[in-house]
Amino acid sequence: MENQEQPTRKDSNKIYFLIAVILALLGTNTYLFFKDKKANDRIVTISDEKTRMQTEIDKIEAELDNASSMNIKLSEEMKTEQETARKQIEKLRTALRQGQLTQGQLAKAQEDIKQLKYFVSKYSSDIEALKKLNANLTTERDELKSTVDSVSFKASDLEKQNEELSTKVKAAAALKTGNISILALNVKSSGKENTVTRANTTDKLRINFSIVNNELGVKGLHNIYLRVVDPSGNLIISANGGMFNSDEEELQYTYKTAIEFANDGRTYTIDWANNGNFQKGNYTVILYSDGYSMGKGSLALK
Asked: What highest taxon heads this organism's lineage (predicted)?
C-alpha cells in the first residue's frame, strides 16, 4: 500500500512542475507581446510625427517661396535671412529622411520647426512691410512726378507766354513810317536835281519818310531794307542786293542803308538809283526794319 502511494505523489509533482512551466511561458509571451506592441505603437507614433513635421516644413517653405516671389528688392540682411531659412529647411528634411528618429531627436526637430516657423512668419511680415513701404514710395514718386510735370507744363506755358510777349514787345518797338513820299529825280551833269514825272528822264527815286513816335523803339542805328517792285510786278535785284528776315520769313532786298533813330520826329531821305533803267508805269517801294515792314509808297511814271 505504501509503495503505491509513492509513485502517485511523484506524478503529481511532475504535473505541478509542468503547470508552472506553462504559466511562466504564458507570462513571458504576454510580456513580450505587450512590449512589442508598445514598441510598435512608438514606431507608429514617431512615423506619424515625422509625416506631420514633413507637412509642416512644406507649409513653411511654401510661405517662404510666396514671400520671396514678391517683386521686392531685398536688403543684404534679408537675403542672408532667406538663405539661412532655406538651409535650415534642407537640414530638417535630411534629418527626417534618415531612418527612425529617437525621442530626443524628434523633440529637437520639433523645436527647430517651431523656431523656423516663427522666423519665416517674421520674414514674411518684413517683406509685407517692405512692400507697403515701396507702394508708398511709388505713390510719392508718382505724385512728385505729377507735380514736376505740372510745374514743367506751367514753366513751358510761361516760357511760351514770355516768347509771345517778347515778340509783341519786339513788334511794338519796331520802327514804323508816319508818312512816306516818293519823287522821281533827273540829275544834270552839273549835279542839279529836278523833279520829273516821265520814266525816260528819271535817274533815281528819292524816298522821304518820318518815323512814328515810339517810346519802345531803340535809339541808335537801325538797318533799313528797300524792296523796289517794277511796273511788271517784279522785284528789282541790284548787284548790292542780299537777304534779310522779316516776320520770320527770309526775303531779298533791292537796297540796304541805315538811319539814326532818336524818336524826335525828324524826316529821313533815301535815294535809290536804277542806272536810268526806269520804265513807264507804277513803282512800289516797301521799307523794312527790325524784322518788320515799316511802310510803303508808290510812284507812277509816264
From this structure: Bacteria
